[in-house]
Amino acid sequence: MSYVGVGVSPGNVPVKHNNNSNIERRVRVAEVVLRCVICGLAILSAALIGTDTQVKEIFTIQKKAKFTDMKALVFLVIANGLAAAYSLVQVLRCVLISMMIRGNNNNNNNNNNALLFNKPLAWAIFSGDQIMAYLTLAAVGAAAQSAVLAKFGETELQWMKICNMYGKFCNQVGEGIASGVLVSLSMMVLSPISAFTLFRLYGHNNNNNKGRW
Amino acid sequence: MSYVGVGVSPGNVPVKHNNNSNIERRVRVAEVVLRCVICGLAILSAALIGTDTQVKEIFTIQKKAKFTDMKALVFLVIANGLAAAYSLVQVLRCVLISMMIRGNNNNNNNNNNALLFNKPLAWAIFSGDQIMAYLTLAAVGAAAQSAVLAKFGETELQWMKICNMYGKFCNQVGEGIASGVLVSLSMMVLSPISAFTLFRLYGHNNNNNKGRW
Questions:
Q1: What predicted TM-score, i.e. pTM, was given to this entire model?
Q2: Has residue B180 been placed in a domain?
Q3: Is B151 on the interface with A (CB under 8 A)?
Q4: Contact flag B114-A140 (C-beta cutoff 8 Å)
């Protein structure tokens, strides 16, 4: 029985060099890559929006646009900050467990099993991933709605568009929201991976299975 | 081997009256109940928002507020309509498969297994549930953001609050959004159920499992 290094999650089944080993390896690699991508993009999104300002002079009066003028952008910056911190912790967890397994390998398989088949830990990771996926999506949804209003206005409600006045500000916010959308999409792809990791612990192989996947 | 009637999903494992039978029965019942709740609440939410209008007379000019004035509310009505239709189809699927299994029961267990362990169908249900969960959440997030703007305005952007003018309209929209939030929360609870149903098909029982759950 062998274990592949970085990216082994608690709850993952051990690599048995059987028919499932390829899919298991791919799942582990995908998990670590996605968590790194999420961490980077979330930091980028929060930085783009959080540092965005533009000053306009209107009849000798200076007006400054900043992200705190729109509560939805504040929510998005907070959500992306949480997503980045969470993903960093998860990547460290993957590396740490991988190191512990390497240390235990060939010495004590019971310790490895305790790490790899730990249902409470797998539940915690699954719950965390779900919460972060929903949090980032809700934040992106709210921010995108605000951005649409800023770009096009809502004439029926007399909410005027502001992007013709603060073009540079709006463009940078747009880039931040685009990064936020990618964070959210990556979280959506990651979420089934941790579900797979958790719920297969409750399963059993069925030889009568008619599905091909 | 016996099968409990309504609520049996393709991908669920059969009830074997073993240690897992209780959790399996609960999962099936929870699935059907949640799908019915989602269907009812989504219809309620779409109806509350879609039928909401208020006419105000301002200096002999009549102004009418309707949900199409806010694009986020149109998105929410469409998302709730899709969620209601999808949930109805899923409830019918549960009932239909339950009837087919009852018809096959004690006659041909291979047919039952083909229904219960159908991975492609379990993948389709899981994907559908995920998409609906994310769709309803994004719609609720955008609509909630618009509602906050309508209620409190955004003075920095000179977007004035409109709920002091259209109080009855805003209250009904608020009720519709509250129902939409419940739809979204129910979808979030349902999503791990279909993940459980799917991914346990890929699992195997591990006797060395140290987790207690």
A1: 0.82
A2: yes
A3: no
A4: no
